[in-house]
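Comment thread on ticket #2218

A.B. wrote:
> Attaching the input chain for the structure job we discussed in standup.
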Amino acid sequence: MEKTPNETVNNILLSKYTQALIETLKSIKPRQKPDELSRIEVSQTVSLFALTYEKMRNAVEFREDHLILRAAIERILKRRLALNPKGEDEAENLLRELLWARYFDNGSLGKNNIEEIQKIINVYLKIRKKLIVGRPGKYQVYLNDFIFDLLTSEIEETLTLEKSQKKATQTFYIYQVLRKKIKIEELTELQKDAIFLAALEKIYRKSDRAHQRYHLLTIFYQPLSSYSDHELEKLIPKLPEIFSKIDSFINSPYIDVVSKFIKKNLPPFLILFEVLDKKLNEAEVIFSNFDRLKTEVDYICREKYQQLSIKVRNLAFRAFIYIFLTKMLFALILEFPLSKYIYGFVDFHSIIINTLFPPILMALIVLSFKIPDEENTKRIFLRLVEIINKDQSFEKEINLFTKKTKIKKPILIFGFTIFYSLTFIITFSLIYEVLTQLNFNLISQAIFIFFVSVVTFFSYRIKQSVNEIKLSEKESVFSPLIDFFFMPILSLGKFFSQEIARLNFFIFIFDFIIESPFKLIFEIVEEWISFVKKRKEEII
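C.D. wrote:
> Ran it. Output below, let me know if you need it in another format.
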């Protein structure tokens, strides 16, 4: 095997971007813990019940772990502001609820956090009041949603400052290294950079819409709570146009092609950041030595591969619980009365298959996932060396070029569209024939297709976790044939998961029926425990 230039020299000269990354990460300070007098402490008894409730609530809404905290902040704030529109003293209530549910350790937040968060709430409520008054109803809803996305994201990042600063630094590093490798002919450099950052939010940070909006705003401006009253007065009239511009970048037609490029190049960055997380103080020494870096990358990759198996199993379990609670249970409950009403009898054979087949299918799909191997580790290491190296040829080489092209062969495109449509007909016709042979009625068949498509879609999403650290994925010779039959099912599963998710009646039950009285009971119980504790201290 040929030796690379670096392997011969055994030394790596670090690029300015890599040196800046290490220095910036070292400069990030952890959030100071409050002193004994100012810290907020909550009852552990209340906390246990609140944590149990939160786990149940999150089970009926499938989100990745890093998105749960902001969603919880949004849910709490919307409920509390509905009762207290001015938001007075709501920061303390918000922080207490977050401590109850153990999003933060008991006693890790204090009075300074209350003041900080209350200021943010006040600023955004002031902006909302001035911004939405007198505007059309639908536009008011849009502006209100945008402001709430910014508000909840800023609160989350203020409470998790160290983590958010670290993630922002890593994102900017990827941006600096890869941005020169992309050229989009129709866009200015500023437009291209904005779309590149939006794609990074989607692929690297896996941000939801709220985080995407907030991060893009803070890149080009500042968090809105950091402006003075005078500056805000000048900025507020411009915000609708700024919001619209940010959404245009997030929804740009170029996002998909840029996202694919980022996803393809992301694995070595993930391993690089893992080395920095584990051994930041030794980073310069490790990155400068070819052999030492190779050893570290090899160990971290093997560790990642081992963690992937556990992560995939956990995601599959969570996905199935979510599907069962929000979709399967509802459909199975409907299958019995509808079959009885329309056909006059119930085929328990089909109900059993519809109940057992989805988890078996998900298990089979998940077991088919291939964890990366040593060849993948070697490719990641060599690419990582190119990234951190002072030699800038890697950054400057343009290997992606996108431009709008006219359809030169409309007849061919029309033919492909017809052929693609036929895949739906063929796939679902085959399913229909098989189920008919099993004596499924139309209701049972519809429910079966519903289950299979949703399970397949979620399995596909889980597979993306495996591909995160695959530098390049070799397609099987059977991939086109598999795609032919599975694309219709995936497309239908995506539709059911995204569109019908809005009809998740369990979320309605939790958020509008259960949560308010539960949280009120928690508050009363905590006040009672606090009262008894004070009386006890007085006696002692």
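A.B. wrote:
> Thanks. Noting for the ticket: Residues 1-9 have pLDDT under 50 and may be disordered.
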